[in-house]
Design a protein that fits this description.
By secondary structure, the chain is mainly alpha-helical. It has a domain of 131 residues. 52% of the residues lie in helices and 3% in strands. It contains 24 helices and five strands. The chain has a three-stranded mixed beta sheet, with helices on one face. Helix 2 crosses helix 3, helix 11 runs antiparallel to helix 19 and helix 17 crosses helix 22. The N terminus is likely disordered. InterPro entries: DUF885. Pfam families: DUF885 (PF05960). This is DUF885 domain-containing protein.
Amino acid sequence: MRPRAALGFAHAWRSWLPHAWQALLFIVRSRVGENGLALRDDLQFSFLIRPESLTVTRVLFAVCLWFGSCGLVLPHGRSAFAAPPSTASERLHALFAAEWEYALREAPTWASHLGDKRYNDRWPDVSLAAIERRHAHRQEVLRQLQAIPLAELSSPSDRLNYRLFLKLLEGELEGHAFRGFLMPLDQRGGIQDESALADSLSFEAVSDYEAWLSRLRSFPRYVEQTMELMRQGVRERIVQPQIVMRRIPAQIRRQIVDDPADSLFYKPFKAFPADIPASERERLRQAARDAIRTGVVPAFRRFAEFFDHEYLPHCFPGVGAWQLPRGDEFYAFSARQYTTTNLTPAEIHAVGLKEVARIRGEMERVKEQVGFRGSLQEFFVYLRTDPQFQIRDPQQLLTAYQAFCKRMDPQLPKLFRTLPRIPYGVEPIPENMAPDTTAAYYRPPAADGSRAGTFFVNLYKPESRPTYEIAALSLHEAVPGHHLQIALATELADVPHFRRFASFTAYVEGWALYSESLGDQLGAYDDPYAKFGQLTYEMWRAVRLVVDTGLHALKWSREQAIDYFAQNAAKTELDIVNEVDRYIAWPGQALAYKIGELKIKELRERARQRLGDRFDLREFHDVVLRHGAVPLDVLEQLVDEWLAEQAPSRSE
């Protein structure tokens, strides 16, 4: 959770409520993980997704609850004549159910990602009027939630549900004031890559193709609404920096084709189920070509013209959230939301500096272990350039990732009592987006299990993807990282829907980073270079604390951020530049990984100290995972409650 696979803001600049698919939910390009949520590995994912911020790239990690217009909606399948809820618990669950249904209707692309086909024929309404209508509804939902007496909720699970729902709702309402919806896209995703939505859909009947045709025909309206948001952003000076937005014109122009059959939006019509007659196939193909030629392509031409001449010249020449109206206030809010703590940017910066120094010491020890003579910086250069760490064929690199994941799967019972039933696969990142994104991201499975989870690997310039990173990256994105955690959450029983798809970034990404440290016990780091790869990835997240706060709070330049990254991490130049540009466009999200990992490690050590010989790592992992994604303070409370149940406590 970019990833873009998600539950919450897959992108702070896009939705401003940091919980992508990166990121469940993705956030939409539904990427969770290194690359959001969208959970974009990141999605981040919060339960509160806005149509204006949901894109295929972020649904991952941005799978969240969506609020809209006023008035409760009856849960799907419930009779309008059913007895009204009477107890506090019944009222609470009625509210959850109503909001879930509204979320699906207001966020139709998110519903599609989850496997709900009821709204497959439409795009979200991202007009300013619709955005304000949904905001008014969120305020009404808060009033209704606060009218439910918390003291009358006798079930611990109901009290936890209430607490989590309230936290998400309050964060969404506070974040609305920063008007991040006026920045609906960046170099990692947006309307320019909505064609990727088709990859998440199942085309089994004529009705599925007809629904996609409806989306093609209404796409020009979606583009016009997006442009109006961006025009308002220019008026209010709520825009992105030019340096990251300069990548977008090429992405837009990839969608402008002479032959409609070459359009990425045409992909579903290149193959049909056997039971669809030939005559129907040709009718659908012709309708798709017409819709793309007369609607989709002209809309992208208008968008390209608008972007080049009306929008890009007004983007910030510098970098950093401090340039925005109330920028410092926004960044402090973003740091709190993404980390689910009250840490200030200055405090987070200090944590980062401390972690960078510690990890450098561990890197020095590995360098000495392999007998390298030279400085750590020279060792970085050696690792980046020596052919022994390179696979130049994209398919061979993909095969190496697939083989590693297959090797890890049977090792999981050593550390986990409960494993998900939902499978996962390893696939390449789509070629049209690979040059502008980072190393990998995860896309969560469909809610009904009809689509497996997917670990997407970047095969662009494979020589820049060193083999010593395969182990750590796979543990993070697949198992025991994002897939194991998100699939288990998806399979939770007897909890409201929003709990199954929640994504507090500090928890989701903190767990994935923590999972990398389990590689020693799983037999993943079978040589010093693989171990150095794990340290490289841990350093990467420590550097994020320094660089993200440097850019957005301390007014660092882009060059200063790139230099600091290069001095402390054995990442390639391509990865470093893409990473820094990601932080520029997504303030605060990168803080969640290390802060979350440190909290999980702190709780594990607390449990080990308290329980002594009775400490069972598999049981600890069950406690951390069995509630789904939660804020770090809630996770700490849940672990402490579990420890209190373990009697007698070990005296320290």
